[in-house]
Amino acid sequence: MKKYLTIEDTIGNTPLVRLQRIAAEQCAKNNNVILAKLEGNNPAGSVKDRAAISMIRQAELEGKIKPGDTLIEATSGNTGIALAMAAAIRGYKMVLVMPDNLSMERRAAMKVYGAELILTPAEEGGMEYARDLALTMQKEGKGLVLNQFANLANPLAHIHTTGPELWEQTEGKITHFVSAMGTTGTITGTGTYLKIQKPSIEIIGAQPAEGASIPGIRKWSKDYQPEIYKPELIDRFESIGQLEAEEMARRLAKEEGIFAGISSAGALVAAVRTSERVKNATIVFIVCDRGDRYISLGIF
């Protein structure tokens, strides 16, 4: 009898594709290739699907939760959507705490999966305020906070899946790995695995330039820096401006047929800069989600 997949089985193993037009002349000149890891192909539409299912599975293994329990998480969007899907798959109630200035598409997607949303005033502290509220709710016995910012199952998801996939897909030829930095789970986990395989691989983190507000790219204050973050792992930081990220998002769709979010475009900006300064390189950047969840922001 044929064994059919479940939706959970479709998380990961996303395509890695070569850019054909953006920076093509420059890549040809320096003998480089820029490759995009299409994480929007995950079932809930982002790289966060990997961490979400990993955190829930680990909490189950440790006996912290059982189906029917309530999970709580502060989120800026993609993790919330991924957790809402993962909770639906495995039978949990999901409460998501998020700033009220995030896109309507992301709110709607969370609700579709059955999650309860608690919106916090963005002007009162954004994600920091949301994180504090989630922890307060946990203390009040309203559910378990998985805490993507401190949960080792977050980067472990990328040590076990994203990193090995990139190593195999590039046949070990990857020389530079570029990722936007939010919770830092993707860059920490993937970077850890790749450095073990080949210490010379350069890990490049995209951070927001002064004054930029790019969904999915953060620069945390010391008091709120994610516990999973390993700054010593990052070889180079690239500051990404608001307008250049938005323009690159439009170019990525029009010139490459890849409809991606603004943080993905920010990572591409960093990848193109990398290609300008190196030769004979295989540069991989993470396309962390799809662009359709940002349409209401007006950048497209």
UniProtKB/TrEMBL annotation:
Keywords: Amino-acid biosynthesis, Cysteine biosynthesis, Pyridoxal phosphate, Transferase. It holds the Pfam family PALP. Residues 7-289 form the Tryptophan synthase beta chain-like PALP domain. Pathway: Amino-acid biosynthesis; L-cysteine biosynthesis; L-cysteine from L-serine: step 2/2. It is an enzyme of class 2 (transferase). One of its GO terms (biological process) is cysteine biosynthetic process from serine. GO terms for molecular function: cysteine synthase activity. Its cofactor is pyridoxal 5'-phosphate. It catalyses: O-acetyl-L-serine + hydrogen sulfide = L-cysteine + acetate. Pyridoxal 5'-phosphate binds at residues 78, 182-186, 263. The modification N6-(pyridoxal phosphate)lysine is found at residue 48. Its EC number is 2.5.1.47. Belongs to the cysteine synthase/cystathionine beta-synthase family. This is Cysteine synthase. It comes from Pelistega ratti.
